Amino acid sequence: MNIGIIIGRIGGADGVALETEKWIDVLRSMGHSIYILSGQFQERQMDMKTETLVCEMSFFSPESFWSQKKAFFYPETDPQELIEHLNLYSKVIYKKILNWIGEKKIDLIISENASALPSHLEMGLAVNKAVHKCGLPTITHDHDFAWERGDRYVSPHKDINEFVSAVFPLRAPNSIHAVINTHAKNTLLERFQRESVNVPNVMDFSKSFGVQNQKNEKLAEHIGFKNDDLFLYQVTRIVRRKGIETAIKLLHELNDKKIKLIITGNYADDSGSAYYNELVNQIHELRLGEQVGFAYHLFHNKGLSNSNGEERFSLSDAYARATACTYFSIYEGFGNAFVEAVLAKRPVFVNNYEPVYMPDIGTRGFKTVMIENSDLTEESVKDMSEVIYNPGLAEEIALYNFELGKKYFSYDTLREKLEEVIRLAKTAAGA
After folding, report:
1. Are 127 and 232 in the same domain?
2. What's the domain range around 362?
3. Residues 36 and 12 reside in one and the same domain
4. Is the same domain home to 33 and 167?
5. What angle do CA 310, 274, 256 make, to 5 degrees?
6. Which helix (H) or strand (E) segment is 23 a member of?
7. Distance (Å, rounded) from C-alpha 215 to C-alpha 307?
8. What angle do CA 129, 134, 135 make, to 5 degrees?
9. What's 179-211 look like in SS3?
10. Domain shared by 415 and 394, yes or no
11. Is the same domain home to 27 and 166?
12. 207 in any annotated domain
């Protein structure tokens, strides 16, 4: 089949983009041809035969930026201008989607979070209209929903809230939902009487990942540390829900200057850099400046050098040099970084994050040091310390977790789930 994927941005290190790449790998291995329609191709070369850019679909386009501001952040007294704007630019995107469907002879559509989270109102409405119009089998890959983000997508305007409720999530008769956790599956059924398939985030357990090599052997020196230090790696973006302040507190509690915390992600998605500044202040107050490294400038999703030829490292390189990984998130749709650490055979320290960890991951039997409500107890710090200072114990835990990860979160699992959801989408569309 010719499968068309619609996504706001692809190629970066956010969870939606990363998981989409994995779906593409597995779908191609199943014999399908993949075509991508995106608002942004981030840190990757476009294939002009199979990939199409629609600038209006970018989250950073003037159209989307303006509507998000007027809908949720700085609303006007009268929302009529915003409603007209949404209708106008959704039509622009809608027409481009229909042209793309015809030009690429698309047989099945996959909407990557564009039909679940209202982070791009015009794109969501355009996809909604296009799916209803074309009648093609459609899979909405729903990573997260508006109601999971507190009041982020609540507008003071009744008309806008009604718009969001009508458009997100997509509920076309020719569509089927692929969700990433049990909570989302239950919520869709309770709220909308919509059945869905729970498709967990996965990794390719057949490929080497997190392997020490000549390239990454001096990674620590690039950050300003010694190669024989002990490293806790926080392999996430810098956004508040990642709970990075707990990792910094752990560093303080461990009270060993040889232990360093490396944060690989940037703060581009941290509004106003408020959370980043809080972390910097915390580091200053705890006098940990010589033990924490913000290293986003050294990392590229695929480890490609920048335009100046300066060496950059991949996430695999980060895990390769980690003694252990911190993952004290408060909320996650699933938890890519957890599965990455398991694949890289590195122990993980984790907060029992909502709403996913225990129902979808923890109950599988993974060995971790887990805390509740971001509370670093004396016992948990002691247990983490034992893992850090005991390489044999760390390796035993990591190998055990690797086998569990291979069983539950591999490409084999994804292939089975994709076969199921494609079959259901075809049935829903009468194809």
Report:
1. no
2. 216-408
3. yes
4. yes
5. 65
6. helix 15-29
7. 19
8. 100
9. ECCHHHHHHHHHHHCCCEEECCCCCCCCCCCCC
10. no
11. yes
12. no
Tens of pLDDT along the chain (431 residues) come to: 999 999 999 987 778 998 999 999 999 999 999 999 999 998 778 999 999 999 999 999 999 999 999 999 988 778 899 999 999 999 999 999 999 999 999 999 999 999 999 999 999 999 999 999 999 999 999 999 999 888 999 999 999 999 999 999 999 999 999 999 999 999 999 999 999 999 999 999 999 999 999 999 999 999 999 999 999 999 999 999 999 999 999 999 999 999 999 999 999 888 789 999 999 999 999 999 999 999 999 987 655 555 555 678 999 999 999 999 999 999 998 998 999 999 999 999 999 999 999 999 999 999 999 999 999 999 999 999 999 999 999 999 999 999 999 999 999 999 999 999 999 999 999 97
DSSP for 331-369 reads: B-SS-HHHHHHHHTT--EEEE--BTTIIIIIGGGT---E
Tell me the whole-structure pTM to 2 decimals: 0.88
Query: Is 211 part of any domain?
Result: no
What are phi and psi for residue 225, nearest 5 degrees? -115, 175
Both 293 and 170 in one domain: the answer is no
Question: Can you give the CATH number for the domain in which 224 is found?
Answer: 3.40.50.2000
Contact indicator for 305, 271 with CB cutoff of 8 Å: no
Same domain? For 173 and 293 the reply is: no
Structural domains counted in the chain: 2
What are the φ and ψ backbone dihedral angles of 256, each rounded to 5 degrees? Answer: -140, 115
